[in-house]
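hey so i finally got around to running the thing on that chain from the lab meeting. sorry it took forever, my laptop kept dying and i had to restart like 3 times. anyway pasting the input first so we r on the same page abt which one it is
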Amino acid sequence: MVSQAEIDRLRLEADTIMTRYQQVETALQQARSESGDHWETGELLITLDTPHEETIEITLNLHADPASNAQSRYEKAKNLKAELEREQEIVGQLAPLPVSPVAYLICYHLDAVEGNYPRSMAGHLDARREQVDPLCEKMETAGLLDRVESGTVKQRRVKAKQADEVRQHHTYYRLSREGDHLLRFLDEPDGQRNVLRHLPDGHTLIQRLARGGPDYPRMTAEELNMEFEYVRHLYRALRQVGLVTEYEGSTIKATERKLKPKDETHRKHTYYVTTDCGNEALQHLAD
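ok and heres what got predicted. didnt touch it at all, straight out
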């Protein structure tokens, strides 16, 4: 993951090399005339004073002149800056979505049923209505949800209801065009990676599964000191996005589960494991 600090460091090193050009050139020429480990690595570590009179260490390319050493840093900083701006733009696409796994579940639920009201959604998602109500309002304000017009709601438009039509006594919501675009974005690798930035606890869960193997919500909640309901929704949201999936075997072998070593574990809970997409997203953020 690109950081502004890395970009600033590269620029400072480049500025310092150019400011101390003669000193750098002398150090390179002297190193080339002497034997030492620098011939094996092709690098030379020197100490220089920055333009701000601060002392820093810089690793130079032994075979390049001062200008080339500086230019390579300027170019790398430029490329990293472009990547950082791209990452910030991508993360920005998730910015309208509340930082809550239930918000993700609401989007996927409304995509499936085409329209529903908060109390019914709470039942479908096994969530509290007092949690779903404000999330729907925030998501409507953000442009991710639309209110269904008042009056009779046709069954063909709202699949959550079983009758051919129902008189609308509740506030119904459906996914807006922006909400639909957001779900499409979550199908892409960039979208899946940025879920782990948008939901930091999701990143923690993916790391835990990648290192320790299959796990279930209650144990995760206890060991990470999180609320069980929150962790359960977090796993479900990550599954919807495609970063985790349910473990299908009836018995978990010791080689698969490092979190609680046993010869084997007979599955009595819903266990989750990372998907290939989850592992790739985790690796990308670690690079």
